[in-house]
Amino acid sequence: MPATIRLPAGLQRRLELASSTFLHPVQGAAVDFRRPVGEAALVAADSVSWRVFKNPISLFVGGVAAVILELADPAVRSGIWQRSTFRSDPLGRLRRTGLAAMVTVYGARSVAEPMITGIVRMHSRVAGHLPDGSAYSANDPDLLTWVHVTATYGFAAAYGRYVTPLSRAEIDAVYREGGPALRLYGAAAAPRSQTDATALFDARRDRLEASPIVFKFLEIMAAAPAFPRSLSWLQRLLVRAAVDLVPDWVRVRLGLTAEHGLRRRERWLVELVGALADKVVIQQGPAAQSCLRLGLPSHYLYPRDARHGI
Cystine design at 245: which of 61, 65, 155, 186 (Cβ 3.0–4.6 Å)? Predict the structure, then answer.
């Protein structure tokens, strides 16, 4: 039997409703991860990524950490802050970005590939000039690679730190597993390991810079009603947990001090919530629905299931 837990009925229903709502964007058609039956995703069901991306707590933390790193690059910052709806509709933007990530990992190929094509087409209209006069484009392969590596770093680091440790081989696997989607997006070179990602971070040292926009982003993420009001304290805690994931030298470069991260004795609470979330099967979520599409049980990705032989 899988080592999963079921929350009290009321809380479980709220989670299921939130997941169902997440899969129905305000604009565009809803995504049905159960269809087409039997069709594989860009990433295999037995991958590390399928396990990592099922956890909503580490996804939130890792996603915030990734955006902090993206905003440190002036070209990416200009695209996110000046040419997107993030400031006017942060929750809508987060839902669309999160849904795109779920489709990329879990969605059937016939759903994921057209979605990526549409995003590339939309990005072709996002271009401009930085304050120093240099041009930028959202489809610049170099910028796409940076966005990918920061996202992969954030999600893997959040899961490994706040849910369950990942081995070096597992972290490397997460980078490799993102390669097919990254090539569809048109990135320059897909990092295939943590070593590749570290090299890319080092190569970016002279480019990353401080900006008040980073602090504004953190304020938005702490205040936006992404969680139920009763859990607003947890949302603020997770934003601080995300700051702690940012490499030390980047935090110094951005002016993020210890006050922006977790307080003493708070990390255990994030770890507790992250570990619990990894045992709750959200039946309406992309992970469980995609397992059913492939004829697998909805608890396939959870600890101590039959796949792991425990």
Answer: 65
